[in-house]
Amino acid sequence: MSLTRHLTRGRDLARTAGDHAADMFAPLSLIGRGLRRHADWAKGRWAATPKERRGPTLFLAAAAVLGVFLLPHGPLLAVVALMASAAWVGRDPKPAAPPEPDVADIKLTALYAALTPYLAGLDDPCPLYGAEGGYKDAFSSWEFDDEGRLAALELAYPPYFTDTEPAARARIEQVVQGKAGRSREYRFDWDEESNRLRVAALAALPTDIAAQPFVTAPGEIVLGFTDGQGSRRTIPVTQAGVTAQQPPVVWRVGPRSAEPHLLALGAAGYGTSTLLRSVALQALPHGDLVVIDGAGTGEHACLVNRPGVHTVETSLHGAVAAMEWVAKETERRLVALNAARHHGMAAPEDVTRPLWLLLDHPTELSELAQAEGRPDPQELLETPLRHGRAARVTVVFVDDLEARDRISPTVRSAARARVVLGPVTPETGSSALGVPLDIVPAAQTPAGRGYARIGTAAPVRLQVPATVDPLDDEAPAALRDAVIALLPHRDTRTEAAAPQASPKAAPQPTAPAALQAVPQNVEQLVAVVPDADEEARLTKESPAVRPRPVW
Ligand SMILES: Nc1ncnc2c1ncn2[C@@H]1O[C@H](COP(=O)(O)OP(=O)(O)OP(=O)(O)O)[C@@H](O)[C@H]1O
Hints:
Rossmann fold, 2 domains, five-stranded antiparallel beta sheet, disordered C terminus, P-loop_NTPase, nucleotide-binding, transmembrane helix, FtsK_dom
């Protein structure tokens, strides 16, 4: 007999013996399983019985056992009954618990199903997306965060999908955001060459950075803060009482800047005036301001009579006069600069000192002018916008998103630093920034949240520092005090405004004695200013910010 046959026979014998043993011990294992289930049941009942009822229950059980013991043949009958019941209960092996559903599996399947109507091809013989397919056919990688939310996804789409059309892209982005959660922002990176889409959920930007002196070089304005991807540097900021490093969105102004003017649009109430105030506070230590408050809400009243602030205008008449002056001042500076260059001399200080024209909701003045049959004040911006870079004149134009069609083409073409605040749609985002936005905003947008695009760079996320109106009673006192601490005062000013640069008769604001002391908080601010100039009373109740008669 060969070795193989011996082995085969041995295996058959072992199998037969195993089968016999299983048959023999089957009743025992059946009863054992039943007894185990009885024990589990008893344990469960005991655990579920309230503590105060456990004593009586134990007593009753002991009495029953004693009763059975005392019965004739009682113990035998009890054992037989227990075995029979155990055999009955243990007759079926315990059904295996259904496996826990995989959350990732469910979510990705749902997303795949939702994308299928948009990405399936009817005539495609082997479609990436189809009723028969699964998400693993199209999704190459995915990541979920600790809370089980989709954090990153890479998917392939068919070559016939019109990925160059913004509307087609927007549909896909909407579906992905809908399935992955609308409470977060998502970046969509369309790789048109390889028909792949990478989706990344973006962490929320901090909203607790208040106005404060930022560590920047002269000529740099911090528009706000972004994420690590949006900025190549970080600056120290005080945030919630501690110093943290945050990546800023920096806008460089001045003669070497390729983006010398800013156009910021925003949904109503989302912080365009706040952004303007933040820019003003950063510009004031190094330059002079002319502020036009087109909406006339008095939101920039805190700047009235500050050193370096030529005027804060709220009326059409005053605004036109101020803008005319800025246009003439730009021309004067250009002539002086040319003369200095011609003679090989350094330019005088009064033509190199930065001058800022800050316009808040100027399209409202345009409408007013149109109603009165007067020329659009925006026409007066032509010279500062076209020649401002050389003349160190910077224009900041902030307005409502709804008013974007009333903004003149000159402003649109010259203001190459762009900001959009508030909830944006693909259409409004692209119209405000000049390029389609590859980020889909979250459903809820806090005030001051938006996107910035400096020149031809890609748009970045932006959170404007909380720079509240110090005269807004509803704003938190700490935020108002932070703004007051940044407002300049005559005694803290290091550089005096150049007398030649001031408009007609150079009427510098005459600060009252009360203003010589630096107000430390809101109460002091409100208390000191009205005495100085009854017309420029800084309260919300009488918001008319009367300009000083400088023209
Ligand atoms: N970055 C921010 N952080 C915190 N709060 C902000 C921020 N920006 C704006 N706010 C708050 O939102 C409200 C509206 O701000 P703001 O007046 O600047 O908006 P707006 O766009 O100019 O509004 P409107 O178009 O109505 O004039 C204010 O109460 C302001 O304090």
